[in-house]
Amino acid sequence: MKHFAVLYAALDQTTKTTAKVAAMADYFRTAPDDDKLWTIGLFSGRRPKRVITTTLLRDWAAERAGIPLWLFEESYPIVGDLAETISLVLPPPTQTSDHSLTYWIGELRRLSTLGDSDRKAGILAAWDSLPTGERFLFTKLLTGGFRVGVSQKLMTRALAQATGQAEADVTHKLMGNWTPDSTSWANLIDATDPTADLSRPYPFYLAYQVEDLTTLGAATDWSAEWKWDGIRGQVILRGGQVHVWSRGEDLMTDRFPELARLADWLPQGTVMDGEILAYAGGAPLSFTTLQSRIGRKTVPKKLLVEAPVILMAYDLLEDAGQDIRSLPHRDRRTRLAALLATLPPDAPARLSPQIDGSDWDTLAATRATSRDIGAEGLMLKRQDSPYLSGRKKGDWWKWKVDPLTIDAVMIYAQAGSGRRANLFTDFTFAVWDGPDLVPFTKAYSGLTDAEFGQITAWVRKNTLQRFGPVRQVTPEHVFEIAFEGIQASPRHKSGVALRFPRMSRWRHDKPAAEANTLSDLKEMLANYG
């Protein structure tokens, strides 16, 4: 654990990517294999489940520190992190330990099987044997909230430096449905065949939002297609099986069983990239319809009929078992079109149509019609571009339509978490329905740090009521709420739900009485829902 704590401190104390990569590379050269494997798992989001509620942790920490709970609760927002608060208020350890990270992961799992009294004894014993830095990390793991300020790209670069492998090869190895329990360092990193796991997807190529079309040159150098509003996914046919992966590395094969039918027509050794859409009658259905499929491990027949899905394919990454990502986009697209042309009309895959446009004005006019067909805008891909890994600028851009907006009144506020625990950052907004304000959405992003500080000071002086951590405030401030889509929702009092809401502007110029109405929202629902 000491080595892991040293690594974490090194990463936390610098913003320089070169320093972060150097610290991780040194750790991956020297740490035990099982600790290195768990470190990769933790840094890539494969965290152990929460062992204990934060309420009990607060009670036990205050008791062990010999302070009243109210004093602990007052200290927490000042520190801004629960694990750090606990590690600071506890008395110095009376014991010592030299256990590894892997040992403490195992201890977390053991504690999760115990009753509260035994679990409390085990956690107090751990706190009493760990110095502040290691105690902080142990508590972070206890809460299931461990995060570190490095991207998977930086970790991959460090692994490549430490092992002498190509970064692209390491990136590929880290993809897939592995956990530290299901593999070993040797099998995951040292193995020479990156395709040993036949279900493993390729790293996704991600696009930035285009900011200035004039930097892209002639429109004829680009391939344009719709940016579909679904789930980005790869469909993999290898070894006689079909695997479906989301961009977030979630294996979703069982949630979309109709895609397995593609094995009836397409050859093994095929990997396609595309958008999984709810689709019927020759057109995409709403994202709300698709959402009914996302959270299910098994799908009943009724839902298969009500929300059928297809892959709207737009790239071919592997053809006849050959990795073709280095080929120009136009060539991969030609191969994909030829492959999909063999499918019958009822097959659960379509070729995403290319959009004709000899100049940017023509494409802009087409882009303006995106919402009419259930798209979010256009994707622009340079004709001669390879399929890269991760988010890179230059060859792929998303050209989304402007978001929908509505002016709403803030009626509730809640403090953030972690380093934002001393600021009010999570807000509930309402629109007018006659003389009443009806809540319809929450938002917590879009303001500057200065604006969050300003609204926090205001909330503290204008609280009407408290409901646990939530404060009802005077309905005075109006914010412009931007969002990507709107759909009907019987779960909400307003009858609508927004997609990706955020605060785009603080309307200091507008009084609360001039905010939008529920009728305005319902008109948007009729036009864009």
Write the topology of this structure.
Blueprint: H1 2-12, H2 17-30, H3 33-43, H4 54-65, H5 69-79, H6 82-89, H7 101-112, H8 116-127, H9 132-143, H10 152-163, H11 167-174, H12 185-190, E1 205-206, E2 208-209, E3 222-228, E4 231-238, E5 241-246, E6 270-280, E7 283-284, H13 287-294, H14 301-306, E8 309-319, E9 322-323, H15 329-340, E10 349-351, H16 360-367, E11 375-382, E12 390-391, E13 396-400, E14 404-415, E15 424-433, E16 436-443, H17 449-461, E17 463-467, E18 470-473, E19 478-483, E20 485-488, E21 496-499, E22 502-506, H18 518-528
Parallel strand pairs: 1-12, 2-13, 8-10
Antiparallel strand pairs: 3-11, 4-5, 4-6, 6-7, 6-8, 8-9, 11-13, 14-15, 14-18, 14-19, 15-16, 17-18, 19-22, 20-21
Helix pairs in contact: 1-2, 2-10, 4-5, 5-6, 6-9, 10-11
- Structural class, from helix and strand content? alpha+beta
Q: Over all CA atoms, what is the radius of gyration?
A: 26 Å
Identify the CATH homologous superfamily of the largest domain.
DNA ligase/mRNA capping enzyme
| CATH architecture field of the largest domain | 2-Layer Sandwich
Helix content bin? 25-40%
Q: What separation lies between the terminal Cα atoms?
A: 52 Å
Looking at the structure, what is the overall shape? Answer: globular
